[in-house]
Amino acid sequence: MNAGPDAIEELQAQEARLVLPRFTYDDAWTLGTILVGLARERRAPVAIDVRRGAQQLFHCALPGSSADNDAWIDRKRRVVERYGVSSFLVGARFRAKGTTFEASSRLDPDRFAAHGGSFPLAVAGAGVIGSVTVSGLPQAEDHALVVLGLERLLSSYGDAAG
After folding, report:
1. Going by fewer Cβ within 10 Å, which terminus of the chain is more open, N or C?
2. Helices (H) and strands (E) in the chain — how many of each?
3. What CATH number does the domain located at 5-157 have?
């Protein structure tokens, strides 16, 4: 995905569409297991993390992933926590301005990474309450996997999702 206005609009539309009616501990487990299933279908060497606030509700490391993926999860998640939008969108916004997150954010790149794969967990009426992050694939694929997982979670709510 390029960093042009169309990409930014698409990323913003995803976030507007992927607002959850609720997010419980059971929902965290469901989302995590959906993502594990999708990753296993693809034989993707990823780590998956689901958090509500500071609490980690789900974590799984699949074959081929490493501790580096956990470090990437933390760096991408911090971007979501700081900006309230997906790590991919933050990076795209900087690139659209002709710069990079690393060059212009004034944040420590050892602690923050605006690479795709971390997505805000937003609940209707409450706003962003957590994050879901995947690490191990190229950034656009990490992002796409998270989006697909959230779409499947939303569809599991049935009519409750509106």
Report:
1. C
2. 6, 5
3. 3.30.450.150
